[in-house]
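Repro:
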Amino acid sequence: MYRKPGDHAGRNGLSRWLTTVRPEVAQSKPSQLLAVAVFSFVFLWMPDIDLVFLEILHHRSALTHSLIPVAILSWFLREWGPGIGTGALLGTSIHLSADLVTPSMVGFAQVWLPEPWQISLGSCSYVWLFANAFAGFAAASIYARRSFGAKWSLPVVFACAILAGSLYGWINEQSVVSVLVIWLMAILALWPERRWANRA
């Protein structure tokens, strides 16, 4: 098939932009900050995607109410910088922290293993949710150092956690207790990170 002389050059230019220029722009600090904000918001509700797949996943599935989806997303989008993973970790951790505010772990309130088991974790659901939320907040701050450095990673992550956590707890859960639990989880997990900010 005949191609104009400029076609090849045009494709080379597009290829170069996709493989070099675009990732460079995506990994700039403003772009990373935007990625943290956007993906923290999106992942506030991502764990409940198990409701779409109830035939193979129970609500509060151990697969979606964990850091597994974040790990998969971060791997496939790693060239776009750590802001995506940071935001996804924050959103997931906020959601799981709010799920801790459950009077009794029965029925859909429990964390469940997927098919073919469909077994609940019972009262250990509290441990599962706490461990994943705690690890997610801590990992978000560590991950953010790659974008914002040791000095700014903790303030960025903490501010996003408080703002997004307040939004989710107040609007979605309609619970002041949920907001306070999210704040407490963020403080507990991020408190040890002060030493990195102090060294910067």
